[in-house]
Amino acid sequence: MTIVAEQYQHVIGVDTHAQTHTYAILNAGTGRTAGSATFPTHAAGLARAVTWIQRRSAGKVLVAIEGTGSYGAKLTRTRRAEGIAVCDVRPPRRASRTGKGKSDEIDAVAAAGTALASEAEALAAPRADGIRSALRVLLVARRAIDSRRTGDRNLLTALLRSFDLGIDARKPLTDAQVRAVAAWRARRDDDTPTRTIRAEARRLAASVLDLTRQMEDNHAALTSHVSELARFTGPSCPPSRTAIGTGSATSKARGPLGLSGWPA
């Protein structure tokens, strides 16, 4: 096994956030911090960070990013596109911060230290543009679809319980009942209010069926990606982060539905 210090001259730890990233440079041979700085996350800020790193490091460089699948996704893509080695690391545990407090610089140094203490073959290759990102997108979409379907089904049940439309809705609606309502057609003998109420019931039932099909398609895509991920046998950075949505990817995400936003 090759240790990181034998393969790289410097390790750059990055503590990522929505508006800024904090960088810390460690000398791989001595473990000493060669510098730290914070830069904005926009394109100009990332370019400034690269210039800063180049001026303070030499030889082969490894970038250890905390949150490659969330706030660090753009940084991960740009560094990899430049041919720079990147690995994914977990945020430091609270116990490891005892007596040190919480600061972005401390976390950036800890990210670099985690990578430096690992064997080179065990570094986690980030998947910001790969299977895990696709799974996160599908899971967010699934929650949204399921929420809409539940809402429409509840509205349909309430409507059928409020008006006598020939459907026994005293118990939760069955799938067969939903399909029956979705198949309704306009009746000539209905007055205008009844025609309107039946049309709304039909719309809600059709929506439930459509959203159910979307859920099925979503499940099929999830199953395919999970199977693909299971076949992936590449190394993982200790502790392992093969589970979806674990570690920094979710602990840093604070946006709607638990994500900081779609990968840019």
Describe this entry's structure for a reader.
It is a single chain. The protein is of the alpha/beta class and 264 residues long. Helix content is 47%, strand content 13%. The chain contains 8 helices and 5 strands. Helix 3 (73-81) links the parallel strand 4 and strand 5 (85-89). 31% of the residues are buried. Mean pLDDT is 82; it is low at 233-264.
Question: What are its keywords?
Answer:
2 domains; 47% helix; disordered C terminus; alpha/beta; 5-stranded mixed beta sheet; elongated
Name of the CATH first level of the largest domain: Alpha Beta
Number of domains: 2
Given the C-alpha coordinates, what overall shape results?
elongated
Could you tell me the mean pLDDT? Answer: 82
Quickly give the structural class: alpha/beta
Strand line-up of the largest beta sheet? 3-2-1-4-5
Looking at the structure, the CATH topology of the largest domain is Nucleotidyltransferase, domain 5
SS strand fraction? 5-15%
Write the CATH homologous superfamily of the largest domain.
Ribonuclease H-like superfamily/Ribonuclease H
The biggest beta sheet, please? 5 strands, mixed
Radius of gyration: 26 Å
Q: So how many helices?
A: 8
SSE order: HEEEHEHEHHHHH
By DSSP, the count of extended strands is 5
CATH architecture of the largest domain: 2-Layer Sandwich
